[in-house]
Structures are given as structure tokens and as C-alpha cells.
Design a protein that fits this description.
It is a single chain. By secondary structure, the chain is an alpha/beta fold. The chain folds into 2 domains: about 210 residues, 2-enoyl-CoA Hydratase, Chain A, domain 1 (Alpha-Beta Complex); about 50 residues. It contains 11 helices and 10 strands. The strands form 2 sheets. Strands 1-2-3-5-7-10 form a 6-stranded mixed β-sheet, with helices on both faces. A 4-stranded mixed β-sheet has the order 4-6-8-9. Helix 5 packs across helix 6. The chain is globular and about 60 Å long. About 35% of the residues are buried.
Length: about 280
């Protein structure tokens, strides 16, 4: 059996998922992508998990696609290839329940995970390794992190929805700059343009991210987190009026839930909350 390329552990209601090919800066392989999808689903379905952290082993977050895979694609005799069949193998859909089809694609399925996904960017995040953090809900970076799109330097294009997601995070001009030039930027520039939420000293990264994740897992309603996440991502496809109508319906549902009663009670009683997610 092949060695696991993605690690999974749970502590204090937080699942930590670690890309685990440190000798290759966690460059992605098909096995790694499959294992990542598997453990993300596992964390999503686990009652004991309320928050998910995604990070990389060693000194890199993810250096992109494994170059051996790119070499294999480059050697294909294209006149003999069924393009649609190949697209299906390279970018298979990720079917999920109760979400828009846009969040059922390869890599774009993170927003369909019902729990917060926090990217702990510990080092280089390049190419496909740049895309993974985009689909995390929140990105916190080490001061040693570096970011680069890489695609134009490989003769490629803005892959896997990066042309849709990146401008929403950093604006059109910054997105085109990063995509055109494929230049590496450091953590401070990533913070300045809005690519990450926070930059912390490298040695403090995981403790900082875990502290924040535990805070989310223990002090706020997990039901609220699930509904808010779905609202925010699906509102990207709605008018303001429609988003308000969705919020009104969800508010009526919230009033009837245990977590609403607990939210009021723990505040009035001046005690820590005991949310159940119901």
C-alpha cells in the first residue's frame, strides 16, 4: 500500500489536514488529490469536528503539480486523444449535496464543506498550491510564506476557477498582475493585497491558527457557522434582494433552534456557551 500523502488528526474539535510530501514541497499527485478529497469529506461528516485546518508538512505548503505529471501530459500525442475524456480525468467533478454546481468542481469543493476551512500557509504556495488556499475560507500565513501563480511561466492559463476567485479576493488589477507575471510575492505583500488575513512569525503559525480554530469550535454556534458559510458563498450568485430573502428565511429557522436558545442563555447567565449545533 502506498504511503499516505495526506495526514489527518483531530484534537479539541479541530481537524488538522496536512499535505505530506515534504521532500517534494508537497507537490500534488493524483493520489494526493484523492486523499485530500477523502479526508475533507471525512472531516465534514465527523460530529467531533467543528473546524478544519489545512497546512503542509515541512518547509512548503504546496509547490504545485508534481512535475512528472506535467511531463506526462506534455508527451501526449494530441491527435489521438479524446479531449473530453481527458478533461474528465484531469478535472473530475466532486459531487456534493445541497450546494450550487459551481462548488462541485475539482478544488472548488472547499466552499461546499459545511465547516470553516482555515489555510495555515507555512511556506511556498505556488501553482496548484496557490489555488488550494484561495478556496479556504480564511488564510493565515507564516512570515516565510511565498505565493505565485506560475501558470503563465508554464505556458498554461488561469486554472480551476482562479480567474473567478482571485479577483474577488484581491481585485481585478492585482489578480491580473499575479496571473500575468507569475512573480513570487512574500507574505507581507499577500497581506497588503488581501490574499491572506494575517501574517504571523513562522514559529507561531500553527499555535496561532489552532488557537483561532479552537475559539471557533468552542465559543460560537456550529450551526451558525454552517449557515453563514453557505450564505456568503451562495450570495456570490444572488442579487442583494435575494440574499436578504435568504437571510430572512434562515433567521426564522434560527429562532427555532437549540443554539439560539443557548446563545441567549449563556449571555444572560454570564457563562461559557454549550452549543450543540442543533
Amino acid at each position: 500500500m502506498s504511503e499516505k500523502t495526506v495526514l489527518y488528526e483531530v484534537e479539541n474539535q479541530v481537524a488538522t489536514i496536512t499535505l505530506n510530501r515534504p521532500d517534494r514541497l508537497n507537490a500534488l499527485t493524483r493520489q494526493m488529490e484523492d486523499e485530500l478529497a477523502e479526508v475533507m469529506q471525512r472531516a465534514d461528516e465527523a460530529d467531533e469536528v467543528r473546524v478544519i485546518i489545512l497546512t503542509g508538512a515541512g518547509r512548503g505548503f504546496c509547490a504545485g503539480a508534481d512535475m512528472e505529471s506535467l511531463e506526462e501530459i506534455g508527451s501526449v500525442e494530441w491527435e489521438t486523444v479524446d479531449i473530453e475524456e481527458l478533461k474528465g480525468r484531469i478535472v473530475p467533478p466532486m459531487p456534493r449535496q445541497n450546494t450550487v454546481v459551481d462548488f462541485q468542481k475539482k478544488y472548488s469543493y472547499f466552499p461546499a464543506i459545511s465547516k470553516p476551512v482555515i489555510g495555515a500557509i507555512n511556506g511556498a504556495a505556488v501553482g496548484l498550491g496557490f489555488i488550494l488556499p484561495l478556496y479556504c475560507d480564511i488564510r493565515i500565513a507564516s512570515d516565510k510564506a511565498r505565493f505565485g501563480t506560475a501558470f503563465s511561466q508554464r505556458g498554461l492559463i488561469a486554472e480551476h476557477g482562479v480567474s473567478w476567485m482571485l479577483p474577488r479576493l484581491v481585485g481585478i488589477s492585482n489578480a491580473l498582475d499575479l496571473l500575468y507575471s507569475a512573480r513570487l510575492i512574500d507574505a507581507e505583500e499577500a497581506l497588503r493585497v488581501g490574499l491572506v488575513s494575517r501574517v504571523v512569525p513562522h514559529d507561531d503559525l500553527m499555535s496561532t491558527v489552532r488557537e483561532y480554530a479552537v475559539q471557533l469550535a468552542t465559543t460560537v454556534s456550529p450551526r451558525s457557522l454552517t449557515v453563514i458559510k453557505k450564505q456568503v458563498y451562495e450570495a456570490l450568485f444572488l442579487t442583494l434582494g435575494d440574499a436578504i430573502e435568504v437571510a430572512n428565511d434562515e433567521m426564522m429557522e434560527s429562532f427555532q433552534c437549540e443554539d439560539f436558545l443557548e446563545g441567549v442563555a449563556h449571555f444572560l447567565e454570564k457563562r461559557p456557551p454549550a452549543f450543540t449545533g442543533r
